[in-house]
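Reviewer 2 asked us to include a model.

Predict the structure of this chain.
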Amino acid sequence: MRKLLILALVGLAAQLVDGALGMAYGLTSSTLLLFAGVAPAAASASVHLAEIGTTLAAGVAHWRFGNVDWRVVARIALPGALGAFAGATFLSSISTGAAAPWMAAILFTLGTYLLVRFARPLRANRAAGRLRSRFLAPLGLVAGFVDATGGGGWGPVATPALLVSGRMEPRKVIGSVDTAEFLVAGAASAGFLIGLGAEGFLLSTVAALLIGGLIAAPIAAWLVRIVPAQLLGAVIGGVIVLTNARTLLRAGELGGPLPPLLYAVLGAGWLVALGLAVRALRRTRRARAVAEAALGARAGAVPGPGAAVTEVALGARPEAVPGPGAAVAQPDTATPKESQRLAAAAER
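Predicted model (structure tokens):
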């Protein structure tokens, strides 16, 4: 019972992270399961089976809020399902001893990517046009394969690529990727079922992860408003890097003073990434405040009761002072292009 409770907390924590970042449910839960000693194939299979339920709930919620671009879902989900099925078959065919370093290396790489990505602001391009299948299909194929073989990776691979393209709203990127993941998780589970059989799934683990994830889903919607995604991404990236570094060091049979030295280097890199994430967060907030102040000043440039006295005192021309019956000019409003220009200038 205590183990199941811990697994439920793992699912809850993973869903909180995923709800705040739009990614990393598989990364977080697979990393913690591997750390607990679960076999790589069994960990990935159990996580993906639990994700069928969590992604279905997330997809329905995104659909109800209008966050889903069904054209993108159709073009990324099918290749993603093929890649996930192939990845699950591949992972099921190799031994546990060979799978552990492979899976840890993928998770370590994705954790490093999270650190780098959230250590600096993500600047989206202002590209126009719709995303084409020649971009979405290979992206889904690669993301699905990495997701199944690494126990996670669909969100970290697909979400940033769509965000950087600049052709979709961030909310629709998150909603479309989460909705497409339902089909990806189902295909990966089918691949593990063929490769491992029903005994390859730890049903108690699946149930615990699913319960924790479903409980955390509404909490994550609140958490994303409280904890900055920039900071949370850097924290989770560091945890994933350090945890999987332990598996890689064991697989390489490295001893002596080298492991403590490597841990010290990785820990220092994590602290640097956290510092950069905090600085990037402050710069983003400061730039947003400057842009909002500039737009507010432009929109609120209406002379108040003491405006005439002030202008005369400053040497304004007498004819510039409005008389008793003069109409007060309406405030200027910034056009969308002017708003974007002011925001860009504020960021610079």
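The chain has a mean pLDDT of 77. The two ends are 54 Å apart (CA to CA). We have added this to the supplementary material.
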